[in-house]
Amino acid sequence: MKTKRRILAGAVPEAPPGTYSNAIAVGRTIYVAGQHAGEPDGTIVGEHDVHAQATRALEKIQALLAAAGATMDDVVKLGVFLTDVTTRAQVGEARRAFFSGDFPCSTLVGISALAQPGLLVEIDAIAVRGASGTKAKT
Amino acid sequence: MKTKRRILAGAVPEAPPGTYSNAIAVGRTIYVAGQHAGEPDGTIVGEHDVHAQATRALEKIQALLAAAGATMDDVVKLGVFLTDVTTRAQVGEARRAFFSGDFPCSTLVGISALAQPGLLVEIDAIAVRGASGTKAKT
Amino acid sequence: MKTKRRILAGAVPEAPPGTYSNAIAVGRTIYVAGQHAGEPDGTIVGEHDVHAQATRALEKIQALLAAAGATMDDVVKLGVFLTDVTTRAQVGEARRAFFSGDFPCSTLVGISALAQPGLLVEIDAIAVRGASGTKAKT
Question: Domain for residue A136, yes or no?
Answer without folding.
Answer: no
